[in-house]
């Protein structure tokens, strides 16, 4: 099967390639009897790749959009006849409404005909812009069309067929409909403003999903693929072992007996990447970001990695005395000196030292949870980037995480290998390294 099948149903700007997963699976000798976990599963690259390889996997994430994406991508048992029937009905319902929205303010020859078009009552819909929509990210008519689509998708039965319609709906928002560009942060793109063909984008996305499901179902039926079992859960990575033991049927099945064999993942690292902003439109259309409280619930379940998810009550750094690590203390001390010398008492800069302490403390808590559920001899691979986002103070993320994992948690002989160099998001800072950190739990 083509490498991009299914992965392209919904993409995220920070996702890594499935080739990374296949390469590590080959290197580690991961087989069909093993269980792989991705605690920062995102849109599902690790779990989908594992499924294709015939390996059981569990993915967890805090974002409702990411959880929906990963569940859809790894559920290959959808009834395609039901999908087609429901799709036809939905497209028939929304098309005349979309046409009416596009025609508003336009004078055409049809306007003067006696027959006219299909009567459409737009008063059925609430076209007010959702509160948390960033300014200018949706033009008026695309906003109205997406509102109509959401209204009718929500009327459908709550099942795995409708999940695919929800995924297609949120996928076209940033890709095709919104006035958004990623560089890598999401910003307004004025060049895309105006009306757009939402119907065509949505219809094409559903056609792609249908074609991929047809191919993968045929491949399974013919024996070309023997897929692994997959489970997708919503969870804070700092509570991984607790959530898996309480909620995971796959972990607790006889085949795996409560133990994870491998972890392959890419957590956030200290940089100003606000994941809830980059997925803002998707979260809004899933009713997961109606107000600040909704956004805070998602942010507070994440590892602290940027100034916009630092909160007054955060105290993980103090809980684990993270500054007892010399590297962390040196970084924080350098930042505190800058704060004092530059007399910085307002703005996001005053939170930079806390991002460092809370991030590494949160990752220590995560490592403790992984260690707890990982089988003896099991390996955990983390793709992490170094950082120079904060006043160009160098943060060697992989090196510090390796020290914490070995000295505080108990992993043995951490290995760090360069994966790639990335362009720094700060103009005054050179390219930064993105590394793969491999941790091993000692054999008992």
TrEMBL record:
Xref: SUPFAM superfamilies: S-adenosyl-L-methionine-dependent methyltransferases
EC class (word): transferase
Family of the protein in this entry: Belongs to the N(4)/N(6)-methyltransferase family. N(4) subfamily.
Gene3D superfamilies (UniProt xref): Vaccinia Virus protein VP39 (3.40.50.150)
Keywords assigned by UniProt, alphabetized: Coiled coil, DNA-binding, Methyltransferase, Restriction system, S-adenosyl-L-methionine, Transferase
Coiled coil: 199-226
Protein's name in the database: site-specific DNA-methyltransferase (cytosine-N(4)-specific)
Native source species: Halarchaeum rubridurum
Reaction catalyzed: a 2'-deoxycytidine in DNA + S-adenosyl-L-methionine = an N(4)-methyl-2'-deoxycytidine in DNA + S-adenosyl-L-homocysteine + H(+)
InterPro entries reported in the protein's UniProt record: DNA_methylase_N4/N6, MeTrfase_CN4_CS, SAM-dependent_MTases_sf
